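Q: What would this complex look like in 3D?
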Amino acid sequence: MSSLGVKSKKDSTPVYSTIAYAVVTIIALVCVLPFIVLLAGAFSSESSVLKDGYWFWPREFSLEAFQFIFRFPEDVLSAYRVSILITVIGTVVSLFISTMAAYVLCRKELRYRNALSFFLFFTTLFSGGLAPYYIWLSRYLHLSNTYYVLILGPMFNVMYILILRSFIKGSVPEPLIESGKIDGAGDLRIFLQLVIPLSKPALASIGVFTALAYWNDWWTAMMFTSKDQLIPLQYLLYKMLSAINLSAAMSEHVSSVNTPKETFKLAMTVIATGPIVVVFPFVQRYFVSGITIGAVKG
Amino acid sequence: MKGFRKSKLSVLVLAVMLVLAACSGNNAKETPSNSPASTDTSTEPAATNEGKPDNSKEAKLVGYVLGEAPKGMPEVLKSLNEKLKADINATLELNYIGWGDVASKYPLVLASGQDVDFVFAADWNFYISEANKGSFLPLDESMLKTFMPKYYAKQDPAAYKSAEVNGKQYMIPTTTPDRKVGVVVLRKDILDQVGLSNPTKISELEPYFAAIKKDFPDMTPLNLDSQYDLPAPFGALVQEKFSYAGAPIDSGDPSGVGVYTDQEDASGKIVTITDEPIQGSFKYAAETMKKWYDAGYVNKNPYSNKIRSKDNFCEGKSGVAFANSIDVQSMLASCQDKGIETYIMPVLSPTGHAPSNSWLNNGVALAANTKNADRTLQALDLIMQDESYVYLMYYGIEGKNYAITADDKLTLPEGVTSENNSYPADAAGFWFVDKDLFKPNADWTDSYVELNGKIKDYLLPATYLGFTFNSESVKSEIANLKNVSSQYFLPIAIGAVKDVNESFDTLVSKMNAAGIEKVKTEVETQASAFLASKG
Amino acid sequence: MNTDVQKGDLTKALQKKKTWGLIKDISTNKVLYLMFAPIAIYFIIFSYIPMTGIVMAFQSYTVKGGLFSSPWVGLDNFQYFFNSGKAWIVTRNTIVYNVIFLGCYTFFSILAAVFISEIQKKWYKKLSQTLMFLPYFISWVTVSAFVYNFLNYEYGIVNKILENFHMEALDIYSNSGYWYLILPFMYVWKWVGYGSVLYLAAIVGIDQEIYEAATIDGANRFQKITKITLPLLKPTMVILLLLGLGRIMRGEFDMFYQLIGNNGLLMDATDIIDTLAFRSLMGTADFGMASSVGLYQSVLTLIIILTANWLVRKYDRDQALF
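A: Here is my prediction, written as structure tokens for the whole assembly.
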């Protein structure tokens, strides 16, 4: 199935190829250069960054920022474990339920599908603010200090559901579903056996976004957890950062000298970027090769 | 996604606010008066028994403090609970609200009616607004007398007065307010080069700046950051003319504008920016800053610079560092390591004084719905005033986190460094304890010890020491003034204006539109009530 | 099946017997509604119930009174915003910037996606796409440090280069003109990788048989882009634009706050609703005032999105958001 996508090779014309390569290369370069500078900064000594600013390679190589982060390695490992756990569980559950809802939203036989879409969309427009949300979750639902809150809090994003809806609409032809129905398949079976395979590129992209949202979510942990064993990686880094930034101002003692501040921020970004470098290549095959509906139909 | 956005915003609020607050503590911030206007909605205090407290039933207390729990906290807490159990039959569970989360989480913890017995409280940390909302339990003298005898014996009664909001006291302020003044740190080598031996005012530093501009191309004489440093040189210049608090009396925000008072004016007149001595000294400061800015002594884009002059002074990027006598310590040490000799110049009023700090800079309050008010107070009495508790909570466990040298100074035990100390001093958030019980540190640099010795003589109780403005009835105006100050005052403060008089007029007209008169009237009402009650 | 009938009667039916209609719809499509149930329950619990907190915008919140019996203060909480004298300027700025952002972002995301899909070498495709994603991870705080390093007057890299060519140094942080370019550029830079993933997924989702058929018909690659890829991307584009409009009153607060901060000289040109509210409320913990501006933004967004959706519906019912 994946080999079918690159058929158009035969008719490649050099001019278009050149333009495509040039445009993509320029955009990619603009995006990657600052990251290289950032990487260099993360591996520099704090004082060389303060003194000479950023550059493309470390002017004074140093691991102090990383050493600072890994001062208490067991904390970091536990945080990694929490982050990976919530990201994997959360993404799988969220993606499945979101896609299911998206499929329902494009079924034409549902009279109120637009009302249902609006029901979802409305939540992105209005919110009661932080206070009622916090009180409701912590006091009434007793979700504080649980894994549930870390997984449920950022679970669904209405935008992604609506994007999935439009993808399904575009990539699963109506007649195919009709014929499935005539063959006696129920909605759930059509969804599992027809819609999911045909929506792989969309699922891959929304899956990446959902996973990133989980991975980067320090906010839920900040609001609802106070137990060390429930702290995800991003919140741990965030806590370290705010501690260095602000405790120095309160401190009457020398204990806080020489903690890296600027390089810490950069090192933090490097660590946070981990998932994209590790996971993205696995997902990418769904973006680089196309889908042929015939392959599923047959 | 939306929740996300909000959260980021509030986190920023806090980050900025805390930096401002924590660093501007030297500007005397004062306390409330009895504003009769708004009615109080707080709950009744938990029943207080007369005579001996009854501790027969075990109490589990829950406290919230700011910061991060140090690594060694579980051990310290265990030891604390053993002591508390033996002394008052209570145990304590401690929660932390991280520095980055205070603005969002602190009000929520109080609003949600969770199990909370006490929280850290301070005038720079929403004390007034939370008291207005009725989040705290009102306290009275008899409660303190009964349950906090040690504290009651030590505390100045004026402190209780200063903690009053709408006529009721909600905070247990520290018995030892911070003793600190703003300082300007200079490089000894460049001072010697230009022949300045003992500068005492920032305006004398012009040759120093000129020499930096000429001979040190990588150094900016005044390399200001966006939060702390930005209004600092302006404030120091104003301070040369009269005893300026460093911030308006209504908001306490050093980057803000509002109404002012001369700290050493016994009559306590409330003045606006168009009155003397404000107008004259502000214009003097603005003209000087403009001269310096035009000469290239000030970095052109301080709004976007996030690195404090204190952090890059030792790297040779800034010719001046702005700090206070407490947080300057770590910087002096790192300059010493690099072999840079420093000169410390305190920022003082024309009479050579600085206003002393309010009691409310550090304190603790009881949550409105605590069920253990009396036991909490007893626990706090021990934690704040009993030497063994104070050392335990502030410095950790002796022999593990701190040691005492032969000459009775504090130091780290053998093999423990400041990097691996699991319970660094200051870090646990108990800043409201009795600091008079502390011994000096063995590692203080000589210049710091010298500065510290002089501070007592600099500090002078200002007329409004103990006065904090309750802005509840003019909160819209205060919000608008905040906004006006960043657009129209900050450019004046760094000297980035074409014409000082013209910009000044614009600022004044914008302030009038924002409702400065209403704020002034409200401040006057509260201030005169305060002075009257002080007698 | 019987879609035609439904189209015509939908509005009428809605008005007439709403509840009855819904129940009937549920009973005829049990499985579908059951499949939707988890999402519905989630949003009722996590969004609709806490949404009642909107009333706080009209209250002076007290701990004792809570959400339901705190004193009502009418529109007092809105005062600071509407009396600031800048309500109109910041509303205009918010909309203008977001429209520009949305336009640039959409254009460059599609451009990147189309050209990535044109690239033959698989490894290059993968690599370039990954690289484009990197800016997503760099927070605005860090970006602002970079931008300052690059553009500041004294030792910014740009001015160092200009100096070498004996040109006059630029004072970028004092001239709002530059920022009309810098801000959209930074926005696109940060989000182009993210956006192109969606468009690429849409391109990849197009049935390959269509392209094969076009090849047989003798279409060249440029024709395939303009005649097949772009038209088939339209639904994705419309939905993403509509969703983008849903955020039009909010905008990228962190970007404005971190890059511009309290810079008074740039403020009239770069102040948006969120930054104004943030500056004004810094240091207060007033729930009411904090939620009032959010409500203003929500109501405006609702009006805008309903209008836009109505226009899209008129033109093509299937592509509307709801």
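A: To summarize the key features: Chain A touches chain C through 112 residues (CB under 8 Å). Chain A has one domain: 71-297.
Q: Very helpful, thank you.
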